[in-house]
Amino acid sequence: MKARRPKHLDPRGPLAENAARIVKTRLEELRSFAPAALEAGASREQHDMRIAAKRLRYVLEIIGFCLGNEAEEARHRARDLQDVLGELHDCDVMLPRVAAHVEERSAPELAPGLEQLRAHLETRRGELFDRFREFWDAEEGSGTWEALERAAKARR
Amino acid sequence: MARVRSIDGLRGDQPYASVAARVVAVRVEELREHATGVLELDDVEPLHDMRVASRRLRAALEVFEPCFPPKRFKAALREVKSIADALGERRDRDVAIAVLCEFADAAGAADRPGIESLISSLRTEQLEANERLRIAVTTERLTELDELLSGLVAEAERVGSEATGVG
Predict the structure, then answer these.
(1) Which of A42, A47, B104, B161 could form a cystine bridge with B167, CB 3.0-4.6 A?
(2) Between A and B, how many CB-CB pairs are < 8 A?
(3) Is A115 within 8 Å of chain B by CB?
(4) Which ipTM did the prediction report?
């Protein structure tokens, strides 16, 4: 997923003003994947949201200090979001991999273990998706992203 | 995992380009510090540390992009991405193998052959990824990248100094 480019950045200007513009862009990018990513089968959107969470997390890690406590809180939550979506993505990568392995190696003695693994990954994916949804709803409810948006707006 | 090095004395009122120079310089040092032992297959932590360092450097370059000359910036970012991708390809196999080994240990005897067969296939890919990584992290290549990034840092320092009227 190509990153959106923040506008009106000035290398000679103060860091805080530029940081606010970058954070605003990264936050909008992250939030643009809801509600699409909140559908169980939307693995593409969930993957893109993971990338967006990672970008926001790193931006806040580097320049969040000029946006105060709201940025520090949002950085932790972006990392949590990246973690859960990362695990979800791992399941999405491994499931077709297991299916392909079953097709490649048709030996009957391999089938039970691979079927067991497939079932485990399906269950795990379902649990992770539920956790992701709950997490997203909780953060929207507690206003983590709005607080960051306000903090950025105050410094532009 | 190696902790990220903190950079003291950064402030929001400093020129964006001055902060760019300081942050990128530290992240480049971190990348070089973690370049030892990454090709080891018995201990996967050095590779993990260098991968994290490469991601932090890439993120810093992207955050401060407007502070660097565009052409040289693109070349540097392309090289950092290439190293990060090679590290990522190896890391993905390291992680998948560790997870599947744990799963196999907990599985019943009848289930193990299938899982071990998948692990064996991943070990082959791990070796292949390691060979690609060997080419990506040669001393010559890392030195060239270092020089390229030092040039970017110097340029950002110059822009930052102009903004503050220093130098």
Answers:
(1) B161
(2) 112
(3) yes
(4) 0.93
